[in-house]
Structure formats: structure tokens, C-alpha cells
């Protein structure tokens, strides 16, 4: 049973999963009345909740060994179940590249109408994405991007650089009037590009606050255990600081344990991803955790919406475009006590 309620389909595509409109979308205009009439007809036929052509969607997701990854699988399955015209062919989630390639090849052989894939490794799975596209099966590439744009029809995912940027801005604004402010960073896996992007965004934001210095950084592994161990190291290394940015709310549970064990509370903490645990703590306002920067798993539900629209040859309702955009980037909102009620329904366990 799901632990969250999904926002409306329109809300997913135009709210949480915000389109980078300036970069992605251009309007179609014409002086011909016939063209205008055709455009109006296409708009009326855009993807909506009304049943349409039956679509079989193949879904190859991750192994649910992390709260966010589990939410990805749940949200995709739950969203597909709300459509009477969608049949979901879901594989058993896997973080093994070879196994996931085999699962996707099985879906290709079953001739599903559309594929939604969150690859264990985008680069390693690029060839199977190309194989699906060559077979005439459009691919919605979810989050971890393939190495070639020819391997997918549409990419939808989070903004890792934006996560770091918005975390840095939030911390910067809170500390802008404090002299010689010190911050520390509890990062994720350093061998992942997403971790490097989050750190880069954070560092770039802090450049706007010359009174703030990042005095320490430690990489964890997106697990509770690693978060606790690495946070304990940070606390021993830095006797006093003003703010902590933690890249991931799952490892943040461990970080909070280390903080409590050390009896430290002179700083505030900003998390990452948007777990229900983090949002509950922010709402209660009784720990050092004061905010979290979203990396919304609702992208999986939106990916199903996009796959259905692709399978039915429709665009997105409310836009002038005839076709589904080539890419959609979600916005990394900062959740605080002031707005946590708005985002609680998307919090994941």
C-alpha cells in the first residue's frame, strides 16, 4: 500500500515536474485559418484523463533498496493503475546492468507500445535504449540519462545542480548577516556525476556570500549507516559550524543520529530529496533539520503520463505544442516549515 497520495496529473506535469519552458518549448503560429483550426483540434485532443487508445507501457525501474527508489517504483505503478486504457508491464527492479538490459530486451520482444526506463547506469544501457528506438518503441528515459539522445524520445528527471544551488541559496540567505559563517557538506557517492553536480551547485551558490566558508566536506553512500558514520567524522573534525547540507534524506536519518549522540545543536541542517521523515521533522520543528531540497519521485508518475501520451499520439494539455517535449527538468523546491504542508503528500518513506 502506498504511503503517499499522488498530486493531480496536471499538477505533476505543470507543477512539481516543471518544464524548463524557455529552453524546451516554442509556440507554433500561422496566419492561415486552417492551421489555427488544426492547432485547436490538436489542443483539444491533448493528453487528458479521458480514456483513449489502449497503450501497453513497459516499465524497467530500479531495485527498491532506497526510499527514493522505492517511491519511483510505487508512483509509476500507482499512476498506471489510474488509467483504464493503460496496461503496465513492469520488470522486477534491478541495479544490475546486465540483468536490466535483459529485462528491457524482453519488453522489446513483447512489443510494448512505449518504454519507461530508469537505468541502473545510463551510459551502460544506452545501446538497449537505441535498440528499442530502432524497433519503433519510443523510450521515456527517467532521471539517469542515456549517453545518446538517440536512445530516448523524451527525458524527464531532476535537477541535481539546482538542488545544490537552492540549498546553497537557502543557507546563504539565513547566514548572510553572520560574520565568518561556517558550513559543512555531507555529500553522496562521489563516483556519481549527480553528486558532483550537487556539490558544484552548492559551491556556486556560496560564491554569492563572501562571509560564508565551506570548511569541510565528507562523502557518504546514500545509506543510513554511512550517513551516521560520516557525519560523526564531520562532527569530530569541526568543533563548531553554522549550517550543514546533506545531499540525501535517507543518509540524513543516520546523520541525525550522529548529531543527537554528539549532543550538537549549534547549527541548522538542510536535507535533500524530500522524504516523509524529513518533512515530518521540518513540520515539528524540534530538531536541527529545518529544510529539505526536493528531488521529486513524482517524476515516475509523470513519466507514465508522458508514455501514455506518446502511445496515443497526443501532446500535453494546455500547451501549444503538437508533440511531447524532448526533455523536462523538475524544479528543486526548498521545503521549509512555511510550505511543508503543500509538499507533504509527495513525501516518501
TrEMBL record:
Its main location: other. GO terms for molecular function: carbohydrate binding. Pfam families: Peripla_BP_4 (PF13407). It is found in: Cell envelope. Belongs to the bacterial solute-binding protein 2 family. The keyword Ligase does not apply. This is Substrate-binding domain-containing protein. GO terms for cellular component: cell envelope. The keyword Mitochondrion does not apply. Signal peptide: none annotated. Residues 29-53 are annotated as: Disordered. Residues 57-314 form the Periplasmic binding protein domain. Keywords: Signal.
Amino acid at each position: 500500500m502506498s504511503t503517499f497520495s499522488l498530486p493531480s496529473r496536471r499538477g505533476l506535469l505543470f507543477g512539481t515536474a516543471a518544464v524548463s519552458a524557455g529552453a524546451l518549448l516554442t509556440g507554433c503560429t500561422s496566419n492561415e485559418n486552417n492551421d489555427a483550426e488544426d492547432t485547436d483540434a490538436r489542443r483539444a485532443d491533448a493528453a487528458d484523463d479521458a480514456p483513449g487508445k489502449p497503450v501497453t507501457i513497459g516499465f524497467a525501474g530500479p531495485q527498491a533498496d532506497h526510499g527514493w527508489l522505492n517511491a519511483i517504483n510505487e508512483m509509476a505503478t500507482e499512476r498506471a493503475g489510474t488509467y483504464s486504457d493503460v496496461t503496465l508491464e513492469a520488470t522486477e527492479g534491478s541495479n544490475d546492468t546486465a540483468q536490466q538490459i535483459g529485462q528491457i530486451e524482453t519488453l522489446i520482444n513483447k512489443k510494448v507500445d512505449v518504454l519507461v526506463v530508469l537505468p541502473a547506469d545510463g551510459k551502460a544501457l544506452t545501446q538497449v535504449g537505441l535498440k528499442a528506438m530502432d524497433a519503433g518503441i519510443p523510450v521515456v528515459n527517467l532521471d539517469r540519462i542515456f549517453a545518446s539522445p538517440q536512445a530516448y524520445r523524451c527525458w524527464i528527471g531532476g535537477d541535481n545542480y539546482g538542488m545544490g544551488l537552492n540549498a546553497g541559496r537557502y543557507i546563504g540567505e539565513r547566514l548572510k548577516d553572520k560574520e565568518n559563517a561556517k558550513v559543512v557538506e555531507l555529500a553522496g557517492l562521489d563516483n556519481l556525476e549527480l553528486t558532483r553536480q550537487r556539490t558544484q551547485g552548492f559551491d556556486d551558490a556560496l560564491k554569492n556570500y563572501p562571509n560564508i566558508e565551506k570548511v569541510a566536506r565528507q562523502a557518504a553512500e546514500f545509506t543510513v549507516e554511512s550517513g551516521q558514520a560520516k557525519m560523526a567524522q564531520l562532527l569530530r573534525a569541526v568543533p563548531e559550524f553554522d549550517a550543514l547540507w546533506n545531499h540525501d534524506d535517507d543518509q540524513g536519518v543516520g546523520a541525525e543520529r550522529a548529531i543527537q549522540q554528539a549532543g550538537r545543536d549549534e547549527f541548522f541542517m538542510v536535507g535533500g530529496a524530500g522524504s516523509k521523515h524529513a518533512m515530518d521533522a521540518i513540520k515539528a520543528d524540534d530538531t536541527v533539520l529545518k529544510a529539505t531540497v526536493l528531488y521529486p519521485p513524482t517524476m515516475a508518475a509523470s513519466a507514465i503520463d508522458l508514455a501514455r501520451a506518446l502511445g496515443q499520439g497526443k501532446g500535453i494539455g494546455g500547451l501549444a505544442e503538437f508533440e511531447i517535449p524532448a526533455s523536462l527538468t523538475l524544479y528543486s523546491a526548498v521545503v521549509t516549515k512555511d510550505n511543508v504542508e503543500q509538499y507533504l503528500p509527495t513525501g516518501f518513506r
